[in-house]
Every structure is written in structure tokens, then in C-alpha cells.
Design a protein that fits this description.
The structure holds 2 protein chains of 2 kinds.
Chain A (H helix, E strand, L loop, with lengths): L3 H20 L7 E5 L2 H11 L3 E5 L14 H8 L3 E4 L9 H7 L12 E3 L33 H18 L4 H26 L6 E4 L5 H6 L3 E5 L10 H14 L3 E4 L6 H10 L2 E4 L13 H18 L2
Parallel strand pairs in A: 1-2, 1-3, 3-4, 5-6, 5-7, 7-8
Helix pairs in contact in A: 2-5, 5-6, 6-10, 8-9
Chain B lengths: L1 H21 L5 H31 L20 H4 L13 H6 L4 H4 L18 E14 L14 E15 L2 E9 L4 E10 L6 E9 L20 H6 L7 E11 L5 E10 L16 E11 L4 E13 L2 H4 L5 E13 L9 E13 L6 E15 L2 E12 L2 E18 L2 E11 L5 E14 L7
The chains are: A alpha/beta, B alpha+beta.
Chain lengths: 312, 453
């Protein structure tokens, strides 16, 4: 090698090295937690308290299956001590390249700072047998929207607390205490939610995407169909007609729509069946006032009870 | 091993339920305690199930050799083996390499989401395999002048069949291979290992890869927002294959003012890249440097800027006495818009690349310039429309300039295929015009990569 280009390269590499060394300075004392979604962030915040900083990559009103892998997310991942993902391939369309490019060995898949929260939760709709694309796009390992069951919230929080304790043993007792406190508050809240939902056990409803299974199981609701013909596949006219027929036969009067879907098809279904179309929140942060895990259930249960009541 | 766990769980469950039955005459307290116990038990079963899923996903189906402990970490469930396997979207795995350069967002390229994929457990330690077919039909007259570099498309062509093999190798590295089968032969489009756990935030790649010169050079055919490549790419940067060579690449995120993503990439290659660089001696290596700055303007709009430099020996070195160098300078700019609440329905991408070439040759050095500017708009969940303007000198002939324009319409009939029509007008320097119509069908099988960005 010789010439201007080589000198250019040498200077370039030298500069990068120098800046890198300068930049690798004392890390903050708080554990830096980055989560794929706001719900994981909310649960981490519950148990991590003021000993961690936590930030979510996806916004609460965004489709978590289809997040753009923006380079700005790398700035967060680069400094993370812990990355918490929802798992079950929810983030597979965008997170893997971010992890690879982050230049952060702590959060690489299977490193101590990589936590797949799905291992703690009760997972429904795990496909048995061969999975093909004909079954849809986005839930090949089971339903990844498991955080909508408060019991799973508790389980995930316990798992996160344990992980935080492993990464920061000095604060382990603190995290365990925070978890106990969260557990207590959640149990109390669950009693309230269960009571509010009790009159509506067995009520039938339709959701746009298959994101409501765990919620429906916990609160004894009956999801009879989806606006999407298969998870991740946009509505088709024939499926919509079928769904309208089903809803009429079953006397189903509620369509729940995630905030990131177009309301055109749900509204036409509503018009054809007399069902109410309601935008529900699958995630913390879906609306400004929904800032934590408790708010999420408060908000959705208020929506549901109101909708069921008015449908009587 | 997990059968043992299951058996154990069953025994615990059974014995506790027996024990629960013995405690008859339950008063309210006992009842509550019992319920609590059942809940605890349920939690334990769920925890066991989770461990089982984790084990299954990291377990080799019939791996004869014991795997090093590092490969089966407790905290690496499904995704572990899966990461590259990505069953989602887009015509094809964007190589992480591609992604890194920040190419097309799905919308921007009008690429397809492709999901699906095999069950995670069954293929735990096999690499993820994907195949992408790219069929092109062309109509209209194109008789390029003899000195033009533009590749003509035949009436029908199975342009490319790309096989992607991707896997996480261990907690410190991943491997990506992309074999491209044309009608005439096979080409290793890319094949490299990425070291993801280097100290001080460095990420290194070793192997053959598309170099980080600008944006289009890093993109595989199936993630382009067009059927063809811009004139400036064909005239100055080696066309379809571009600067794609064996070597070493190192990148790192640099410290920058808050909110700005700054990344530097430095690459050294053997020095053989189509007709851009040629090596005769071992010392004729080529180098590519890229600096990228990215910023979110709002949550839905962002700006992505890059400067690139490449240097290597050209083919003058082969046939003539002396040392002939080609240097390329590039600037790329991309503006993206995608509203988060409706991200699957609408998006917009505008992009330009400006490239200067300085080619030493006899009798005199040729200094040339070219650019393209393009815009793509997604107006429905499955529909994209776009346009491109081309202007470029030819690298060997600074006095010859080609111009062109193209319009595209892209549709995704399903999540696994893409149909694109393109009208292209080219005005060659020799004052010859061509009007062409292309139809392209891209379809993908198997595991799928993440969206490139
Ligand atoms: Zn989903």
C-alpha cells in the first residue's frame, strides 16, 4: 500500500481509535435497561425503581411487529447493560440487526445482558406440528402478546427482578423488595379488575389482530374472531363477509382495534353488525395518560365495561 | 433431560393435589391458602414450560457433538437460534451488512414482508435458509451504444436466485452467506463472519461483502426500490455487483452531540471489484471508508447523510506499464417519513447519491461525476409508487454523459411476493434514446431476514 489513500486510511483508523478510547469512560452506576416494548419497560421500572434507567425502543401506539430499525436506536442499545425483549419472534423483523450492529457485547443474544421475557410467561396458542406461512405471518412460536394477562405481568416482573439482581448483586435485596411490593399492588388491583369484569364473563368480541388472547383468558372473555384472516395478513373481503356472518349468528357486539390499524374495515363490520368499534390499548403508552402497567388495565377495563354496558 | 423436568413437575403436582385433598373441612383461610398454593404451583409449571421452550430452541436436533456451554445459555430462548432466521419480511434477507448501511426501509424499497419460517425448535442449530427468486421481463427497444456500460435486460430472464444462509455462530459472532445463482453460474455475493462482541464498541466483518460505499452499493437486487440500478451505479461504481470484494471491515459508532448517530466504517479489500478495481500484485488492495450521520427529526421523519471514499487500482494496471489508481468520492442523503400509528400503510423515502470518480488512465486522467435522485411513496398497505432521475458521465470517458428517468409501481400480492413494473427512459451520450418497460417478480421461500433500514 502506498499513496494518499493509505495515509487517509491510517489517519481515519487512528482517529476512530482515539475517539473510542476517550469515549470508553466510567459507566454510570445505575443499570441501563433498554426494552423492545413499553410494557417490558413498565415492568422493569416497577422492580428496578430508581436503581435503573429504562427506555423502550418501540412506542406504545406502534405496531410492535413492524418497527423500523432506526440507527438512533443503536445509540440506546450501545450503552445498555440489559436488553429485555418480548420474544416469540415479535421483534424478529427489526431487532436482530440492531443487536448485531450495537457493538455492545453485553446484550448479544445469549450474553448475560440479553433477556427474553417470554420464558417467564404463560404462552398460549403455541402451534403444534409443522408451521407454514399459510398459518399467517407473525406468531409462529405462540402468541407473543402475553403481557396482557396481569399474572404474566407478575411472572415477567419476577424474572426481571431476578435478572437485575444478577447484574447488580449489591441491589438484589432492593429489587426483590420492589417485586414484593409490585406483587402486592398488582394482586390488589387484580381483585378490583376481576370484580369490574365479573358481570361480563363469557362476553363475545372480535379483535383486529390476535393480540387479546391472554387478556381474554384472564378475564373470561370470548374472542370469536379476528378482522385479520391470519395474524399479520391484512383483511380480505371474503374473510370480512364471513366474519360479519359469524358475528351476527353469535350476536357479537364488540370489535376491538389496536391503535395502529386502519379503522375502515372495522367500521364497515360495525355498520353491518351493529357492533361497537373500540380502539383499545395493547401497550403502555398507547395514550399519553397510560404511563404504567396498572394504567393499561385500568384504561382497557374502563373501555370494555363501558362498551359491554352500552351493548346491553 | 426436559422429560425429567416434566415428570418431576407432574409428581409435584400430583402429590400436592393429594395433600390438598387431605386437608378437608377447609375454612375460608385454608381455602385462600389452597388457592394461593395452586397459583404458586401454576407459576412453577409455567416457569418450567418456559425453561423447556428455552431448552428446545437451543437444542440441536441430533447434534452428535456436545456443544460448548456458551451456546446454550439459559437466557437465550427462541430467538437464539432464530435471530438470523427471521421469518419476517421483505424480499429477502437484507444482509446485516445491508442493513447497517441503512438501506431501504421496507416501504422505501417497496419490499415485501415475508414471514413464515419453520418451527424454531426443529431447526435450532441449523442456519436459517432463504431463497429469493428474481424474474425480470423486458420490452421496448434498447440498443445501447458500444461504449455504454448499461446492461440490457433480455425479454425474459431468471435474473437471480439468491440463497441466504444465516446463523448466530456463538455469543461472539454471527455468519451470513448469500449465494447468487444467475442463469449462467453461481456467485458468492456475500459471505462473512461478523464479530459482535469486540471491545470498545467495534464491530468487525471478515469475508466477502458488498462494501459500504454509499447506499445502493450495499443493497441486494431484491431490496432495491427499482428493477434496475441507477445510471451512476452502472457507469461509475461497477453496476450490479458494484464494489463487492473479499476483505476486512471495521465499524464503530462515534461519540456525537445528543440525538445524532455517527458511525464510521473502514474497509480493506483485495482490490478486485468488477470493472472498478483490479489487482495485479498483492499490494494492490483497495480501501473504502464511510461516515454516516443520522438524526430523527421527529418520531416519524428522519435524515440520513453519508460520505464515502474508495480507492483502488484499476484495470489499466493489468495491460499497461505503471500504476493506475481509481478514486471514488460519494455523498448520499436520505429523507424518510413513516407515521408510527399508521406505519404499515404509509411511508415516503427520498434519496440522492452524488458520486465523483477520478480514474487514472492513458492518455489522461478522467474526472467524472454522476448522481441519481429518487422518491418512493407507499400509498397503501401493499402499494408503492416511485420515480428516479439519472445523470452520469462514463468513468472512462469524461466527455460522455448519459441521462435517464424511471417510474415504478410496486404491488405485494402476498407477504411473500412482489410484482413491480418500471418504465425507463435513457438518453445516451451518443444521442440515442431508449424507452423500455420492465416487469419484475420477486418471490421468497424459507426463513426471512429483518427489514433493512
Ligand atoms: Zn401479534
Amino acid at each position: 500500500m502506498s499513496g494518499i489513500g493509505d495515509r487517509f486510511l491510517a489517519v481515519f483508523i487512528g482517529t476512530v481509535l482515539l475517539i473510542s478510547i476517550l469515549a470508553t469512560q466510567a459507566a454510570a452506576k445505575k443499570l441501563n435497561v433498554v426494552t423492545a416494548t413499553t410494557d417490558m419497560a413498565a415492568l422493569a421500572q416497577e422492580v428496578g425503581g430508581d436503581r435503573i434507567t429504562v427506555e423502550s425502543i418501540a412506542k406504545g401506539y406502534q405496531d410492535p411487529h413492524f418497527v423500523e430499525a432506526k440507527p438512533s436506536f443503536l445509540l440506546k442499545l450501545q450503552k445498555a447493560d440489559l436488553l429485555i425483549i418480548v420474544g416469540l419472534q415479535l421483534e424478529i423483523g427489526w431487532l436482530p440487526p440492531l443487536i448485531t450492529q450495537s457493538g455492545n457485547p453485553r446484550i448479544q443474544v445469549s450474553a448475560p445482558g440479553y433477556l427474553d421475557a417470554s420464558q417467564f410467561a404463560e404462552i398460549l396458542e403455541i402451534p403444534t406440528g409443522v408451521v407454514t406461512r399459510a398459518m399467517g405471518d407473525v406468531h409462529p412460536l405462540g402468541n407473543p402478546h402475553y403481557w396482557l394477562d396481569p399474572d404474566n405481568g407478575r411472572r415477567v416482573a419476577r424474572g426481571i427482578a431476578q435478572k437485575l439482581g444478577e447484574l447488580d448483586p449489591a441491589d438484589n435485596a432492593y429489587f426483590q423488595e420492589r417485586f414484593q411490593d409490585f406483587d402486592k399492588r398488582l394482586t390488589a388491583a387484580e381483585q378490583k379488575w376481576d370484580a369490574e369484569m365479573a358481570p361480563y364473563h363469557g362476553r363475545k368480541l372480535v379483535t383486529y389482530h390476535n393480540s387479546f388472547t391472554n387478556f381474554a383468558k384472564h378475564f373470561h372473555l370470548n374472542v370469536i374472531g379476528y378482522v385479520e384472516p391470519r395474524p399479520g395478513i391484512p383483511p380480505t373481503p371474503s374473510h370480512t363477509i364471513e366474519l360479519i356472518g359469524l358475528m351476527k349468528r353469535e350476536n357479537c357486539k364488540l370489535v376491538l382495534v389496536e391503535p395502529y390499524f386502519d379503522l375502515k374495515t372495522p367500521n364497515s363490520i360495525g355498520a353491518a353488525t351493529g357492533a361497537k368499534v373500540v380502539v383499545y390499548l395493547p401497550s403502555v403508552g398507547g395514550e399519553k395518560q397510560v404511563t404504567n402497567y396498572f394504567d393499561l388495565f385500568d384504561y382497557d377495563i374502563a373501555l370494555l365495561t363501558k362498551a359491554f354496558e352500552s351493548a346491553q | 433431560m426436559y422429560k425429567t423436568i416434566l415428570a418431576l413437575a407432574a409428581v409435584i403436582l400430583f402429590s400436592i393435589s393429594l395433600w390438598g385433598q387431605q386437608a378437608n373441612a377447609p375454612n375460608a383461610n385454608d381455602q385462600a391458602a389452597l388457592e394461593q398454593r395452586i397459583r404458586d404451583l401454576e407459576d412453577r409449571v409455567i416457569a418450567l414450560e418456559g425453561k423447556l421452550r428455552t431448552l428446545e430452541s437451543t437444542r440441536a436436533p441430533s447434534s452428535p457433538q456436545p456443544r460448548p456451554a456458551t451456546e446454550a445459555p439459559a437466557s437465550a430462548p427462541q430467538t437464539a437460534a432464530q435471530v438470523p432466521a427471521n421469518p419476517p419480511i421483505i424480499p429477502a434477507q437484507p444482509s446485516p451488512n445491508e442493513t447497517q448501511a441503512g438501506l431501504a426501509s421496507p416501504a422505501e424499497a417497496g419490499q415485501l414482508p415475508v414471514y413464515g419460517g419453520a418451527s424454531a425448535a426443529s431447526k435450532a442449530l441449523n442456519p436459517d435458509v432463504s431463497v429469493i427468486g428474481d424474474f425480470i421481463g423486458a420490452a421496448g427497444g434498447n440498443s445501447p451504444p458500444p461504449l455504454a456500460t448499461l446492461q440490457p435486460f433480455p425479454a425474459f430472464q431468471m435474473h437471480e436466485s439468491e440463497i441466504g444462509l444465516q446463523a448466530i455462530i456463538d455469543p461472539y459472532a454471527r455468519g451470513d452467506f448469500f449465494l447468487s445463482f444467475g442463469e449462467g453460474g453461481v456467485n458468492l455475493e456475500e459471505g462473512y463472519i461478523t464479530f459482535t462482541a469486540l471491545p470498545a464498541g467495534f464491530v468487525a466483518k471478515v469475508g466477502k461483502m458488498r462494501s459500504a460505499f454509499g447506499k445502493v452499493n450495499m443493497m441486494h437486487n431484491h431490496v432495491l426500490p427499482w428493477v434496475d440500478r441507477p445510471l451512476v451505479t452502472t457507469n461509475l461504481v461497477g453496476g450490479e455487483d458494484g464494489i463487492d470484494d473479499a476483505g476486512v471491515s471495521v465499524e464503530r459508532i462515534l461519540p456525537a452531540p445528543k440525538g445524532i448517530f455517527l458511525e464510521a466504517t473502514g474497509q480493506v479489500f483485495r482490490g478486485d471489484s468488477d470493472d472498478v478495481f483490479q489487482q495485479v500484485q498483492r499490494s494492490d488492495v483497495s480501501t473504502v471508508e464511510h461516515l454516516r450521520a443520522y438524526r430523527d427529526i421527529t418520531e416519524s421523519t428522519n435524515l440520513d447523510l453519508g460520505v464515502s471514499y474508495a480507492r483502488g487500482h484499476n484495470d489499466g494496471t493489468i495491460t499497461l506499464p505503471g500504476d493506475f489508481i481509481t478514486q471514488l468520492y460519494g455523498i448520499d442523503a436520505t429523507l424518510r417519513w413513516k407515521p408510527l400509528r399508521r406505519s404499515i400503510y404509509h411511508s415516503f423515502v427520498a434519496r440522492s447519491e452524488f458520486i465523483w470518480s477520478q480514474r487514472q488512465q492513458l492518455p489522461s486522467e478522467q474526472r467524472t461525476f454522476g448522481f441519481y435522485t429518487s422518491a418512493d411513496y407507499q400509498f397503501g398497505r401493499r402499494w408503492f409508487a416511485g420515480g428516479r432521475f439519472d445523470w452520469s458521465d462514463r468513468s472512462h470517458f469524461a466527455n460522455l454523459t448519459d441521462k435517464g428517468a424511471a417510474a415504478t409501481l410496486t404491488y405485494w400480492p402476498s407477504e411473500f411476493s412482489q410484482v413491480r413494473g418500471e418504465y425507463r427512459f435513457t438518453h445516451y451520450a451518443e444521442n440515442r434514446d431508449s424507452n423500455e418497460l420492465f416487469m419484475q417478480l420477486i418471490f421468497s421461500l424459507g426463513a426471512h431476514g429483518a427489514h433493512p433500514f
